[in-house]
Amino acid sequence: MSSQFYDVIIVGAGLAGSYAAYELASSGYRVAVLEQKSAPGLDSCCTGIISTECFNAFGISPEIIRAKVNSVRLFSPSGRCLRLESEKVQAYVIDRASLDQAIARKAQASGAHYFLSSRATDIIVEKDKAKVEVWHLGSREMFTSRAMILANGFKPKLPQKLGLGKIKNFLIGAQAEVEAHNIGEIEIYFGREIAPGSFAWLVPTSANKALAGLLSTSQAKLSLEKFLLGSFCRDRMVTEEVEIRQKTIPLGALPRTYGDRLLVIGDAAGQVKPTTGGGIYLGHLGAKMAVEVLHRALENDDLAAAQLSRYQKEWKAKMGREISLGYRARQLYGRLSDKRIDKIFNMLDSGGMAEALLNSPNFSFDWHSKLILTVLKYNLTNPLQRVWRSFTGRLNND
Ligand SMILES: Cc1cc2nc3c(=O)[nH]c(=O)nc-3n(C[C@H](O)[C@H](O)[C@H](O)COP(=O)(O)OP(=O)(O)OC[C@H]3O[C@@H](n4cnc5c(N)ncnc54)[C@H](O)[C@@H]3O)c2cc1C
Prior knowledge:
The chain is of the alpha/beta class. It has helices at 15-26, 52-57, 96-109, 157-161, 220-229, 280-299, 305-334, 338-350, 353-358, 369-378, 383-391, 394-397, and strands at residues 5-11, 31-34, 49-51, 65-69, 71-75, 81-85, 91-94, 113-115, 118-125, 130-136, 139-150, 169-179, 186-190, 199-206, 209-216, 245-251, 258-259, 262-264. Strands 1, 2, 8, 9, 10, 11, 17 and 18 form an eight-stranded mixed sheet that branches. The protein has a seven-stranded mixed sheet with strand order 6-5-13-14-15-12-16, sandwiched between helices. It has a three-stranded antiparallel sheet with strand order 3-7-4. Helix 1 (15-26) packs parallel to helix 6 and helix 6 (280-299) packs antiparallel against helix 7. It is globular, with a radius of gyration of 22 Å. The termini are far apart.
């Protein structure tokens, strides 16, 4: 199956890999996609919340929308509830497995070849080609191409072996689909007790079903089990037995996302919002930007690292500040005690600050840096500002 010489081989048929495959195959390139699972979207572990901006930008089919989002209920560690509502739909909950399947189908219809149950174990870049070692149903094969895209999610081994460095920090996401009643809108729960260093969620997907999940710096599965048995959830759950899936989410960018004949996209590159762990939109954007740079490089037959380095410059210009500022905001949040989080809730609620922020022109579902800076500048005496000041002097002087 590997005798053909491809223009581009893509490792990973997640949304980033398949989107890149679709774009490249549509431009007439010979594309192979290697996926270790037996089907795209299998055993997916993702809530599927995307902004309307992402939905419109990438032509996502309305058929896979599970719910529209224009309100959210935020719960402080002590149980105080802050409800936010916007007149407009801000986001959609989409069926993530169906999204991966739909993009893969589009890529295949455009001519991309998919090799399933095919795990890439090594990549060797030579002067005139890139080779990838693949294990398929117990046997080893070599594939060759002019260029390679690594879109294999947060799996540090291959990037590190290729000398691209390592993303050192991460969160663990755990999620289960639950049968439940009385979950009418998205609920987010904050606090160290519930989700150490992060937050938990209940996201309704239909009348009696919801996705329950949390992000945590450790023991995410255990924390989710506790959350489901705790006072916020237990009376609303219909079934006790749930299948919890886990996945690691990168925090921060991979030091180098290009090399000779090589580009890295999506979670593998760290194209994820550190504030929420959301990577669907940034992964799509990264894939699009990688394809544009690769297209020029393939046309000029110059696939040297120097030529491909433009990709990193371009994607960092678009998303770098979001990722670094979001990362620092997350570190700051991780240091807050439950008491302090409760104080911030009081402040957001009592002064009408939450509504003001939601309706501020600086508010964006995807781009959080302006909002982070607005929160910090809103009131010089607020507790968040004081923590931020002790945490970093630089931003306050900007
Ligand atoms: C619990 C949870 C909830 C989330 N909710 C949201 C959300 O609501 N909104 C949002 O925007 N983001 C969310 N995310 C993040 C989002 O799921 C990721 O950012 C996104 O999946 C990244 O896409 P990707 O294509 O880069 O990687 P992936 O989706 O991880 O795809 C990588 C693919 O590569 C394959 N692969 C890996 N290694 C190899 C190999 N060696 N050979 C061949 N194939 C390989 C994998 O099987 C996989 O199919 C969530 C994450 C978690 C954990």
